[in-house]
Structure formats: structure tokens, C-alpha cells
UniProtKB/TrEMBL annotation:
Domains: entry comment: The IMP cyclohydrolase activity resides in the N-terminal region.
Pathway in which the depicted protein is active: Purine metabolism; IMP biosynthesis via de novo pathway; 5-formamido-1-(5-phospho-D-ribosyl)imidazole-4-carboxamide from 5-amino-1-(5-phospho-D-ribosyl)imidazole-4-carboxamide (10-formyl THF route): step 1/1; Purine metabolism; IMP biosynthesis via de novo pathway; IMP from 5-formamido-1-(5-phospho-D-ribosyl)imidazole-4-carboxamide: step 1/1
GO MF: IMP cyclohydrolase activity; phosphoribosylaminoimidazolecarboxamide formyltransferase activity
InterPro entries: AICAR_Tfase_dup_dom_sf, Cytidine_deaminase-like, MGS-like_dom, MGS-like_dom_sf, PurH-like
NCBIfam families associated with the record: PRK00881.1, purH
Record protein name field: Bifunctional purine biosynthesis protein PurH
Originating organism: Peptoniphilus indolicus ATCC 29427
Keywords, comma-separated and alphabetical: Hydrolase, Multifunctional enzyme, Purine biosynthesis, Transferase
Length: 489
């Protein structure tokens, strides 16, 4: 049996090749892979020894030769194929091990087009596709993570196993080519997603649904509980975006992708209790995300009500023991929760998708437009409220105080109605501030005045801003414009 090994990523390749050698496999290799294996004491042949042709064009042409591709592509049960390779002196290759040049990694590190072009692999994809096409006779291996599994199955590899490895190989080359095409075009992009699992149903029981994943940048583990539902996954995404916006210990409760409470504190327990107090009813049956490790104290509070999902970077052993008593709760650990990038956002629309960057808050850029200036405490509360309101469905407003949402009004077609909603629902109006995701008119200022709210923040940007500022001055209310709108639909 003969294996062709040519890898850019050398992870585990010495150990893998050594095991093949022990099992009497011949090994053919190229360039740096050949040197590494030979220096490790592994018996290995160069491609040149097989083809009789030296590498040319600075290594651009190494394996593109009939004695390589004929060795891979010949069908073992085809007598004409076998007669041809015998005449040509070709010995069949039974396994191809290849990892591609790191094109996607390179484009994140340099803008030098010559360097980038040199990272466009030609021979690698050709070998991979040839082996994958002929998977009934040739095993294709494109991922170092599969080396041990291949060795475990090597003595009795089924056709189905070969097929699955071929599928993975074609996915690898397809993703690679899409990355090159997207980069060179500068405008086009491709979504490369694979089925992770079929879901029980979609938003409603009569809708079919499935979960597809692309590049898995979030390190997610389901520590406890049954399969995540379509709605769970949707809510988790919304919740994670909230807690990633805050550096201090933070918790959020989510229902139908909308926050029903956000809290920050000196510790996670304080943050969660503030979140809970915002809306002690809506949180029931919702999901909670936290941006610090859940310890025993926090777990004891979380366990007092029914929650569908709890997300955190980590759960202590004691916290897990308390929370996992409830069989219907899902515990989701995202170890790099505060580090991974959420990336662009996509929505399906007519004939395609619309794409946008993540909505970022830059609170440093704001203007106090009223005569009354905010106190230091009010300014801190306004910053918190403005961070919170961008996660609220538009038209959205938030009342907040001391790092806690006191009431959240969202999804109203008229902004003044959202303001009326939070004023009606808040547990207290004493010292709260208001944040709005879009500009408002003087009628909102009148509502603030009537209920003793002394500070508000909004993007501004209306042709009636002057009227709003005058109303704020007459009411002795602090008004801050950020000049950045934060709609969410």
C-alpha cells in the first residue's frame, strides 16, 4: 500500500506517518513534508523518485504529473485502467494526506498581493479532488484531527467511511476556492455552512427546521439538558450579543430575542439580581446569559425560577451540581464568550440576503445639547442605558439606574407609546434616566417632565431637534445626543 503525504499543517504528521510505516505502507512526500519525515527517521520517497520529474517553477509544479494523478485516479476493478498503469509504470496510491496552503489565514495578516497569490494552492486541491473522486479505491485525509481515527479504522475501512472522508474533502476544497474567489472579487461572498443537526421544529411545531454552522468561532459545549431548539438558538445569539457589550459582570434575561432585564454589578450575583428585578414575570421560562463564571452563589439564585437555558463562559463544579438537578434546563458553556467576534449579520429578503456589520456603540462620541448638564452618576447611568437600548426591538426605550434596567419598552410603532409603556411598568421613577434607540419629539420630553425623569439620551437627528432641545431646557431636563442611531428589527 502506498500513501502520498503533502501537508502544510504539520500537526501530528510525524506520528501518523510512523504508524503507517509500522504497518508496511510506502510513503511518498514533497518538499518540507519530505524533509520533516526523513529527519524523523521515517523511510520516505520523493515525488521526483516516482515521476522522474524534478520540481519546477519554485515549487509551483510538484505533483501535477500523470504518474501521480494516474496513481490516484485509476479504478482498481477497471481492467483497461490497470493495463494502462502497468504500461506506464505507474504504482497506485491508496491514500492521500493533504492540508492546503493557509490562504484564509494569510489574507488576515498581509495586503501584499504577491504573497497572497503564492498561498493559492494548486497541487493540493488537485490531489484532494482526485482522491475524493476515486474514494472507493483511495482514502483521502484532509484534517489532522482525523489521523487517529484513520489509524483505528485502517485495517477495515468501509466504503461509507471513505465516502464521508471524500465529502469532507470536497467541502474543504469548496470552502478554499470560495475564500479565494471572495477575496479576489472584493465584493462577492459565499456562505459555507454544514448541517449540524436537524431540530425538532422551527419557531412553531408545524415548521421544519435545522441548524447549520459555518466557521465555529464560538467554543460551545452543551453541558446539560436536551437538544437546543430553534427558538433557544435564536435567543442565545441575542443574549450573547448583549453581555459581550459590557466589560463589568453582566447578566441579561431574554424572551423571544428581546431583553426583559439587563444588569451589571461588582459581582455576577448582583448583576443577575438586578436583571431579575427588572421584570420578575417575563424572565420565567426565558434564557439568561452571564459574562463571568457561574459560581455557587449565582447558581442558587438562578435555580429559584424556571429557566430554559443558562449561558456562561464557565460553570463551577458546585454550580453545575445545583443547576443540573433540573432535567429540563440547558446549561451552555461558551468558554471564549468574551473573546470571539460575532461577525456580520445576515437576513433573508427578496431574491437574496441583506448583510450588515454588527451595531457597535461608541459612547465617547456624544453631545450635551441641553442647558442642564448631567451629574457624574447620571452620565454613568445614561451610558449603561444607551448600551442596553441598542439590543431592544425598535421603537425601543429603556429606563435605567445604577447599572440596572428598570423598564424596557420595545417594538412600538410610535416612540411615545414605548415611553408610556416604560413609565407605566417601571418599579420606580426615582432617579431613573431614559435612553431611546432613535430620535424623539417634544411629546416625549413632556412625558419625562410629567413623571420627574431628569435625564435622557438619544441619537437626535430629527428636523425638529431644536424644538426638542427647547422643550428639554424649559423642563430643566438633561438631553444628550449621540448622533448614532441604533434601530433593531
Amino acid at each position: 500500500m502506498r500513501a502520498l503525504i503533502s501537508v502544510f499543517d504539520k500537526t501530528g504528521i510525524k506520528e501518523f506517518a510512523r504508524e503507517l510505516e509500522k504497518r508496511n505502507w510506502e510513503i511518498v512526500s514533497t518538499g518540507g513534508t519530505y524533509n520533516l519525515l526523513k529527519e524523523s527517521g521515517i523511510k520516505v520517497m520523493t515525488v521526483e523518485e516516482v515521476t522522474g520529474q524534478r520540481e519546477i517553477l519554485d515549487g509551483r509544479v510538484k505533483t501535477l504529473h500523470p504518474k501521480i494523478h494516474g496513481a490516484i485516479l485509476n479504478i482498481r476493478e477497471n481492467t483497461e485502467h490497470q493495463s494502462t498503469i502497468l504500461e506506464e509504470g505507474i504504482i497506485s496510491i491508496d491514500m492521500v494526506v493533504n492540508t492546503l496552503y493557509p490562504f484564509e489565514d494569510t489574507i488576515t495578516k498581509t495586503d501584499n498581493l504577491d504573497e497572497i497569490i503564492e498561498m493559492i494552492d494548486i497541487g493540493g486541491p488537485s490531489m484532494i479532488r482526485a482522491a475524493a473522486k476515486n474514494y472507493r479505491d483511495v482514502l483521502i485525509v484532509t484534517d489532522p484531527c482525523d489521523y487517529q481515527d484513520v489509524l483505528d479504522n485502517l485495517d477495515s475501512i468501509s466504503e461509507d467511511y471513505r465516502k464521508q472522508m471524500a465529502i469532507k474533502a470536497f467541502e474543504t476544497t469548496a470552502r478554499y476556492d470560495r475564500a479565494i474567489s471572495d477575496y479576489l472579487s472584493g465584493e462577492n461572498f459565499s456562505l459555507n455552512c454544514k448541517l449540524k443537526e436537524n431540530l425538532r421544529y422551527g419557531e412553531n411545531p408545524h415548521q421544519k427546521a435545522a441548524y447549520y454552522v459555518g466557521e465555529e468561532v464560538a467554543e460551545v459545549k452543551i453541558l446539560h439538558g436536551k437538544q437546543l431548539s430553534y427558538n433557544n438558538l435564536n435567543d442565545i445569539y441575542a443574549a450573547v450579543k448583549v453581555v459581550k457589550d459590557f466589560k463589568e459582570p453582566t447578566a441579561v434575561a431574554i424572551k423571544h430575542t428581546n431583553p426583559c432585564g439587563i444588569g451589571t454589578g461588582e459581582n455576577l450575583k448582583e448583576a443577575y439580581l438586578k436583571t431579575y428585578e427588572c421584570d420578575t414575570e417575563s424572565i420565567f421560562g426565558g434564557i439568561v446569559a452571564l459574562n463571568r463564571e457561574v459560581d455557587l452563589d449565582v447558581a442558587e439564585e438562578l435555580s429559584k425560577i424556571f429557566l430554559e437555558v443558562i449561558i456562561a463562559p464557565k460553570f463551577s463544579k458546585e454550580a453545575f451540581e445545583i443547576l443540573s438537578v433540573k432535567k429540563n434546563i440547558r446549561l451552555v458553556e461558551i468558554s471564549n464568550l468574551m473573546d470571539f467576534e460575532v461577525g456580520r449579520q445576515f437576513k433573508q429578503t427578496l431574491n437574496g440576503v441583506i448583510v450588515q456589520d454588527l451595531d457597535e456603540v461608541e459612547f465617547e462620541k456624544f453631545e450635551v445639547v441641553s442647558r442642564r448638564k448631567p451629574t457624574e452618576k447620571e452620565l454613568k447611568d445614561l451610558e449603561f442605558a444607551f448600551k442596553a437600548v441598542k439590543h431592544v426591538a425598535s421603537n425601543g426605550v429603556v429606563l435605567a439606574k445604577d447599572g440596572s434596567t428598570y423598564a424596557i419598552g420595545q417594538g412600538q410603532t410610535k416612540r411615545a407609546w414605548a415611553v408610556e409603556e416604560v413609565i407605566h411598568r417601571t418599579r420606580s421613577l426615582d432617579g431613573v434616566v431614559l435612553a431611546s434607540d432613535g430620535f424623539f419629539f417634544a411629546d416625549t420630553v413632556e412625558l419625562l417632565k410629567d413623571h420627574g425623569i431628569k435625564a435622557a439620551i438619544s441619537p437626535g437627528g430629527s428636523i425638529r431637534d431644536r424644538e426638542v432641545i427647547e422643550a428639554a431646557n424649559e423642563a430643566d431636563i438633561t438631553l444628550i445626543f449621540t448622533r448614532t442611531r441604533h434601530f433593531r428589527h
